[in-house]
Here is the input.
Amino acid sequence: MLDTLGIALIGCGTVGGGVAEILLRHGDRLASRAGRPLALRRIVVRDPSKVRDPIIPKELISTDHAAAIHDPSVHVVVELIGGTTTAKKVVLDALSAGKHVVTANKALLADAGHEIFEAARKAQRAVCFEAAVAGGVPIIRALGESLAANQVTAIQGILNGTSNFILTAMAEQGMTYAAALAEAQKLGYAEADPTLDVDGSDAAHKLAVLAQIAFGVAARPHEIQRNGIDTLDAMDIRFADELGYTIKLLAEAWTGEVEGERGRQGEGESKSGRRVALHVAPVLLRHTDLLAQVRGAYNAILVHGDIVGETLYQGPGAGRGPTASSVVADLIDIAVGRAQCTFAAAQLWSKANKGFEIEPAERVRSRFYLRLLVADKPGVLADVTRILADEQISISSMVQHEAAESGGSPVPLVIVTHYAETGRFKAALAKINRLASAAAPAVFFSMGD
Amino acid sequence: MLDTLGIALIGCGTVGGGVAEILLRHGDRLASRAGRPLALRRIVVRDPSKVRDPIIPKELISTDHAAAIHDPSVHVVVELIGGTTTAKKVVLDALSAGKHVVTANKALLADAGHEIFEAARKAQRAVCFEAAVAGGVPIIRALGESLAANQVTAIQGILNGTSNFILTAMAEQGMTYAAALAEAQKLGYAEADPTLDVDGSDAAHKLAVLAQIAFGVAARPHEIQRNGIDTLDAMDIRFADELGYTIKLLAEAWTGEVEGERGRQGEGESKSGRRVALHVAPVLLRHTDLLAQVRGAYNAILVHGDIVGETLYQGPGAGRGPTASSVVADLIDIAVGRAQCTFAAAQLWSKANKGFEIEPAERVRSRFYLRLLVADKPGVLADVTRILADEQISISSMVQHEAAESGGSPVPLVIVTHYAETGRFKAALAKINRLASAAAPAVFFSMGD
Here is the structure.
């Protein structure tokens, strides 16, 4: 049997505590899977006086990052403190001290992937991050290894469990956004400040990581078009349902090589380089779509590869067990030697990696759901349809219900378009919002088909 | 860049042709993923005169296994001829010649896993087989690597696309088994002789492979309880639907550690060693279950791990592209060096591997769907329920419709039981079948919950 792999854990909150517990409780299992023992040597925390699982030996705990990183009996540093300042220093220091790194920190990778991976290549050490995207769902290995024969042509992911929980409660129990959020907070699925989850930022960080693996594209989070669910009106969930659709917060990446018209680039465009469109947004999916059926706090990712076709990966997207399971899988990969092979071959966040370019959002083609609140009077529909026609946007379907009491109060009007370029659609939208009959700004979403 | 990895392809049918095409058409892509070129050096076929894809250079084709295996420029032998005689010889010869092996042959692994893996360990070469189970779905890597921190406690798989296609057509279009099979054959989803697909043999081979990875159990296919869909009556699909269930052909493995009562072993049993129950059978799943929603020729596997909880893997289970995609992923793993690490660490089909024992089928606990055809006369229900009660089997629900014309013709009676030991259920079944009022042998299925 090979030598023991020594591990330092930086951060011992929910996930860190889970990792510590697995390492301490299942030593025999892990040694048999890895072909060598995995030993937890040090745990670095902010508050050493905090009460922890009694299985954690007190003598492992300290507040000293540097001592843990430079301990010669430590071979891998697991960064689980989150954020992009201390975490970045810990990761870079660990690499320069010759340690492998395991992290669940998508924000750090999305923000500083180049710097971290260049440092790792220089130090000839591996950086593993299965837990950074979709918790217990092994999407990093799927994209990087299992689908390696393919060029991925599209990714559609439900990557934020909090948002999916809220959307499920709104759709199935008719809750308002505020009530569903309160329920999610009560059950521990949402933080006290849920902003990063519900505004799409968290999903955008994860999408940036997936896009690097699948397309070699170094998308900074601010380059990803992003709409959250925090402004979603229950009315639109009902209209979508009536049309046969479910609204999901999707993180999507797609190239012009996808079947069907969505994402197809203009003529001649394909010659100038390969492009990928990226966004995080509420999207209307047909009720029968696989992703439409993903309920509650689950995550799921549908990947389209040019050879394999569509494969789906689904599971718990967050939480102690699932995330710790992925962190420990990375530790076993390092113990076995796989991670080092993968790291060398993959050349992630490398300048040598000639990846896709990001398709400008305005050029992306999509079908759109458009919901207006308009005055219930003659000529309004004529005005709206004229504006759409002027931008070459044709209408696929429409819903307007008879107003119960039409005493001048605005009524909703829902229009689903055929494929249109986002730029032209938004131009039409601006004109519609300037109509005298528009009682509120128009609401719109992409259609998933 | 490392040296070229030389590949010999033994068998060039549907899947082999797909592998050849990927290697020949996407050389740059594969080299960039693997960090070294992958070169197709030889293709061995039965009939060299057969017309093939023009991309395949004729000079690579021969009928000489030995020459391909012993070619010093060949480092990996890909066995895609199927069967367990010539294929076994090819694999063993390749290993003893010092070549790595990639195979999609589940029957060979289920039948001769020990012999092949011992030979590979002796030769210090890797055997890879992602394509052997569920085509393009990376379930081998998921179980062996991504979930390595977990003890898997249950696997539920739709592993035979032909059967799932037929069941979907029966359920959704109300077809008879015969009509659905004919449709599957017309569309190329079923062979002219579909026996191995529809009688559960193919799924049992695949389950044996998964059970080896997840439980270290060396189940020979004949040790796996197996019922196919070839005797399924459309009537039972309708009754199941009425009760809220969908019938799927599942390959299942589960331990006593699963939540809920299913599979729980008798008291004291757990002390004598860890046991896993295995079967392939039509199972009733609630309409809302993830696997109930898998339609057509798709495969899907739900894996329960003790740390991660449930994760689901879904995709095309067969066919040229999906299967070739998995074969080439294995080739890249070998080129990168991952496969060699995995092979050494995993110790599959090893006598040193103290795995689970197989739970005797009679001891497995389950709920059951029981459908009788009985004479429509007084006392029948009393007889049946008395027999069940005598075996301590209690009834959860029951369906008997009013007979349209009760002119003495037998009527169906459906009973769903609470949990019962399979042995006692079968004892009751034998008594029920001996009743004078039984017009046909009773039909039964396990319930998935």
User: Anything to note?
Assistant: Residues 106-123 of chain B form the longest helix (18 residues).
